[in-house]
Write a structure and sequence with these properties.
Structural class: mainly alpha
Order of helices and strands: HHHHH
Distance between the termini: 72 Å
Number of strands: 0
Number of helices: 5
Low-confidence stretches: 4-29
Shape: globular
Oligomer: single chain
Length: 118
């Protein structure tokens, strides 16, 4: 009886360890259904995405020559950003952290609204 209980407990634990678990669905910046594309703010929407995906020390950070570290420097490169990020898609380069579809939509909305400093 004890051997059966131990075997059953082992099988239950082993089954739990191998059972496929599903990941929770991400929301917010990765969820295009909840993506805010009206009144996009440089400070709260665009700059955080740039800081996360583009302005690392090896890319568009301080001293890189094409810095995306503040509004003025980003505004000066807006034509490049539109072409390289939204049209050709060669930025960020393969192997680097990529913009989510929401971040791209927000970037497009911000650029289309005249790239305001907000």
């Amino acid at each position: 009886m004890m051997k059966t209980a131990i075997t059953a407990a082992f099988l239950l634990i082993a089954g739990a360890c191998t059972k496929e678990k599903t990941q929770p669905q991400l929301t917010g910046k990765n969820d295009t259904d909840s993506c805010k594309t009206v009144s996009v703010s440089f400070k709260t929407d665009i700059l955080p995405a740039i800081a996360t995906r583009c302005s690392g020390s090896n890319c568009h950070g301080a001293g890189s020559g094409q810095e995306l570290t503040d509004y003025g420097k980003t505004k000066a490169l807006e034509a490049n950003i539109r072409i390289r990020v939204l049209q050709t898609g060669d930025m960020p380069p393969y192997g680097s952290p990529q913009l989510t579809s929401c971040e791209k939509s927000q970037l497009k909305s911000w650029l289309d609204s005249g790239s305001p400093n907000n």
